[in-house]
Every structure is written in C-alpha cells, then in structure tokens.
Amino acid sequence: MTLAPPRPTAPSSTPSARFPWAGLIAIAVATFLSISGEMLPTGLLPEMSADLGVTESSIGLLVSVFAFTVVLTSTGLTHLTRRLPRHLIVVGLIVVLAISAGLTAIAPTYELVLASRVLGGLAHGMFWAIGGAYAGHLVPRDQVGRALAVAMSGGTLAFVLGVPLGTALGQALGWREAFGILAGLMALGAVFVYKFLPPVGRGTAHESTSEPVTDAVPTLFDDTAPPAGAAVRRRRLPKPSVLGVVLSCVITAVFMIGHYSFFTYITPYLVRSTGVPERGLAGWLFAFGVAGAVGLGMVGWFLGARPRVSIPIGVAVVGLAVTGMLLFEGMLVPSLVAFVLWGVTFGALPPLFQTRMLQVAPERMRDLASAFYTTGFNAGIGGGALIGALVLDGAGLDSLPVLYIVVAAVVLVAVLASDRLLARRSARPAA
After folding, report:
1. Most buried residue, 90, 210, 247, 385, by most Cβ within 10 Å?
2. What is the value of pTM for the model shown?
3. Over the stretch 302-358, which tens digit does the pLDDT of each residue have?
4. Using one digit for the tens of pLDDT, what is the confidence trace for 183-200?
5. Distance (Å, rounded) from C-alpha 139 to C-alpha 257?
C-alpha cells in the first residue's frame, strides 16, 4: 500500500530551502506523547496490578494488545483515509490518543482498561504510518533522512524518558492520575500540532525536484550533506532493494521482541532481583532515560553516519550490559552501571535501525517501507510483551534477561550475515 505524495502549502523545491524545524518538532512532540502512552504501563505494573486485581503479566499484556492493534489495523485504516487531509488526520489522532488515556484513567475494571488500549492502538498505528511519511514530504528528497531523524527523535526520547517520568508521577500521585495528566498533555499537544505543523496535500513540488538524491542519510545535526563525502558514502552503501527492506524490518522486529520481553517487566525485576527500593525505582528509570538521551545524541553527532558499524557494536553492547545485570543481581552499584550502559545503547539502536532501513529502501517504496518498518517494530513490542508474560508465569522473573541475551546474540549474527549478503548482491555486475 502506497500513499499519494502530499504537498506542503508553501513548498520549496530546492535543497537550500529553509528547513521546517517547527513542523518537524511538532511531529516529534506528537511521537513522544504517543509512545509514552503506549509504554506507560511498563513502569506502573505493581500499582495497576494491585488496583485492578490482576497479575502483573496481565498488565504487561496491555502493551501487547496496544501493539498488536497497531499491527492489524494501521495499514488498512491509513488506506481508507488516504483522501482525507493529512493535517486534520494527525491532529484528530492525537485527540483520540488523549481520549484513550483519559478513559484508561477512569476505567473501573481491567476489561475496560483493555478496551481503552485498543482505541489508543487504532490511533497510534495510523499516526505512525502517516507521521514518518509526513516528515519526508515537508522537505526535498535529499533532506528526507535528516527530517525523519528530527521528527522521530520524539519516539526515541519517549522510550527512554517517558517511562521514568510516568513512573515517578504514578508513584507520587497514583497510576490513574498519571494517565490523566498524560491525557491533558496529549490534548495540549494536539493544539501545538494544529498550530505548527504545515498542512499537506497531493503533488508536492519536492517530489518533482530535479536535484540529485544521494543514498546517504544525513545525521541529525548536519545542516548540509558534504558533497565530497556523499559520493564515498554512496559507494559503500548496498544497492537499494526490497530484500534489504525485508531484512531490516525482520531484524528490527526480532530485536524488539528480545528487548520488550524483558523491559516490559523491568519494574518487578529491579525491585525483586536487583534489590532496588521501590522509592528509588523512578530514579533508576530516570537514569536509564538520561542514558538513552545520550545514546540518541550520539546517533545525531556521529553514529548515524555509520549504521553498518554502529548497529552490530550496539547489539553486542546490549547483550553485555544485560549479562552484567544478571551477574550482578543484588549488587546495586555494578547493576546500575550495567543498566545505564543498556540505556545508552538502546537509545541509539532504534534510530540506527531506521536509518539503515532508509539507506537500503528503493526510493519508489519509501512510504511502503516505512509502513512495513512500523509494523515490524510494533509486532516486536507486542510479541516481546506477550512472550515475556509467558516466560514470567512459567520459568520466572530471572529467565527474562537470559531470553534477551539469547535474542541479542541471534540479532548480532543476523545483522552481520545480512550486511554481507547485501554487499555481495551489490557487488554483482548488472545483468
């Protein structure tokens, strides 16, 4: 499924046009709020479990339901609404997310909480299917990578900052109050997006620009892509191909399964296995968040220009960090060091995976590739939370980091093998 290319109301057809910071920051704010709503239950498992009278694994499944709703509905709903104004849809979706969070806050039973999460998943999937493409349509083609990095940075920051902040609010005020505050922030976010996100329509001038398009994806803070380096980077990248997109999406999904099989249940693990006092839990998660922000910054400054090297190193470091948490159970200081190292690396890996996917995606199918990536990413989140729940109820809490380590090892091998395969295909002479 592909979407007709939108058009900014005041497009500029040259790469030297003013970069649309306000619009891209508006998308970043929306992605931060959307992902924060998706992942908030992971930091409030004990509180929600006790209040709703269900197991912690049942609360973890709220993440799975949300993510699987995205997987099952995002493509179809996006296609059905393809003729509606994109700007109006984005604002409306944020309003629906606010309603979903508000309903979660007041739902008296687990079943009604589950229903409110399904509503949120419907809006979240459409938003992510539209949001990435929306960012790309605001700029000329040679600035797509940079625009996407800015817009999607809100999602990465939500993974690493939204959970600790939500946990702190939930512990201080109550989990229902935390969802209520989030609903209010989402409503304000909808107003912000309405004001600062430029409307788009069909037939953008950016799509018809005659400027050459490089395969290089600029890093987050680069104002221009150096012409001399672009040719070198282009030669080092594999040829764009459908196979490259498929491999990137599958690898991302598998990594997310490993991550969320453990991270969805990180709250009980830190308290029961690591020995973190409950009142200190928000501080640990905040440290993880700050570490993730550092990792995101590293992507912007230098890692994003070298995803082929950065990704396998990052996956290996994740495996080592989680191994450290397992080995240092009950020892707070070394466990905290390992936890922060994990946070730095996870803050970097999602944008690196997405950058690599863009590098190998044929230009004609970037929208479709982004939709596949969103599906794979959320399938990994939902699948991880579900598998983690099964492992938690079966083998126990301490089996979760072991599962993550195994998955990280599999992903590392898959990354190295796929890069080699794509490099060999690129080296073959054209028929």
Report:
1. 385
2. 0.75
3. 887 788 899 999 999 999 999 999 999 999 999 999 999 999 999 889 888 988 887
4. 999 999 999 999 999 987
5. 33
